[in-house]
Amino acid sequence: MSGPSGLPLALTLGEPAGIGPDLTIRIWRRREELKLPPFYLVGDPDFVRRRARQLGSEIALSVGTPAQAAEIFPRALPIVPLQLPVTAEPGRPDASSAPAAIASIRRAVSDVLTGHAAGIVTNPVAKNVLYRSGFAEPGHTEFLAKLAQEATGKSDRPVMMLWSPELAVVPVTIHLPLKDVVSKLTCELVVETGRIAAHDLAKRFGILRPRLAVAGLNPHAGEDGALGEEDAAIVAPAVDRLRGEGIDAVGPLPADTLFHEQARAAYDVALCMYHDQALIPIKTLAFDHAVNVTLGLPFVRTSPDHGTAFDIAGKGTADPSSLVAAISLAARLSATAPALVPAK
Q1: Whether 238 and 321 share a structural domain
Q2: What is the spatial distance between Cα 219 and Cα 199, in angstroms, rounded to a whole number?
């Protein structure tokens, strides 16, 4: 499966010292077995050749353009070159790491917004490496939203969803200390997050009437105020507003009974109030094949649900399952998305 009009997917380099390059090389070698759609890697060809040799995986590379990628893919790994040499060694980020990771993301976003790629799959980055280079955004997702806004003039709020066949979850607040969650959690934030989730589940996932299960913040969803007032004051009114907009939402529901098999059959996505409330259940159920999907953007973006794993980079032992799932899901979602018109 490929994206609209047979377009390939753009795969970013990610942190070059991490396992992203390893996994990319490994899955291209197994492309027929895994039934992968065409993709190209945005990176430094010399770096990719060097990493392949380090892995003992000599592969054919072909440097070209996105337009050539689908035709090249069956016989060589297509590379759209960065004009930046990458010198990082496995497990050892260096001064080339952040510029290469950032440039790869920029090029992939440009390609998809100009109609040369069907969607984007991002290999993992190391935020601390990016921050040391002066990177100003909180993370990958916010940077993608900024690039989309610069290109389109529209200010879209990205929403992170972790998806697997077993469970899909959306954290309403994400990378916050637990002590800050209550002060940042608002009725408007829950409503906006639920609205974006429902919209993209319908538009991209083809779910006619998405069912949202909204978790309570406190134990037992507040126990009628005995265990906290936030569920009655913030979460319940948000659910009422979502239902008033025609969205099938229920809650606040006690999180401790929300994720067993019978409960999961009653909803399409769980809106969770904080990071671990969402990520613990999905990583328990689908640790090796969950996919990070960014909702609310004008293009499809997925990512494997793991980090750079510096300790095993260059060793050829990293599990490619999550990257394979991210590529397969991006192809599925981009096939249902409207094709973007190439820039004149």
Answers
A1: no
A2: 29
With H, G, I as helix, E, B as strand and everything else as coil, classify residue 136.
coil
Residues 136 and 4: their CA atoms lie apart, in Å, by 33
- What is the rounded distance in angstroms from the CA atom of residue 289 to the CA atom of residue 305? 8
Other Cβ atoms closer than 10 A to 197: 27
Relative orientation angle of helices 321-336 and 20-29, to the nearest 10 degrees: 70
* Per-residue pLDDT tens digits for 295-337: 999 999 999 988 999 999 999 999 999 999 999 999 999 986 5
Please give the sequence-ordered ranges of beta strands (E in DSSP) within the chain, or none if there are none: 9-12, 39-43, 61-63, 77-81, 120-121, 159-163, 168-171, 211-215, 248-253, 269-272, 291-295, 301-304
* Sheet of strand 9-12, all strands in order from the earlier edge strand to the far edge: 61-63, 77-81, 39-43, 9-12, 120-121, 301-304, 291-295, 159-163, 168-171, 269-272, 211-215, 248-253
**CATH code, domain with 125:** 3.40.718.10
Q: How far apart are CA 185 and CA 338, in angstroms?
A: 33
Asked if the structure places residue 190 within a domain, the reply is yes
The DSSP annotation for 182-195 comes to HHH--HHHHHHHHH
Tell whether 151 is covered by a domain.
yes
pTM for this predicted structure: 0.91
Answer yes or no: do 274 and 300 share one domain: no
152 and 172 assigned to the same domain: no
252 and 188 belong to one structural domain? yes
Domain count, the chain: 2
**Integer Cα distance of 337 and 11 in angstroms:** 18
State the residue range of the domain holding 258.
166-283
Instruction: Kindly state whether residue 343 falls inside one of the protein's structural domains.
Output: no
pLDDT tens digits, 8-55: 999 999 999 999 999 999 999 999 999 999 999 999 999 999 999 999
CA distances from 293 to 53, 98, 108, 289 (A): 32, 22, 16, 13
Q: Are residue 187 and residue 76 in the same domain, yes or no?
A: no
Does any domain span residue 202?
A: yes
Q: Which residues of the chain have pLDDT under 50?
A: 1-3, 339-344
Residue 92 has what DSSP assignment? Answer: B
**Cis peptide bond upstream of 252, omega within 30:** yes
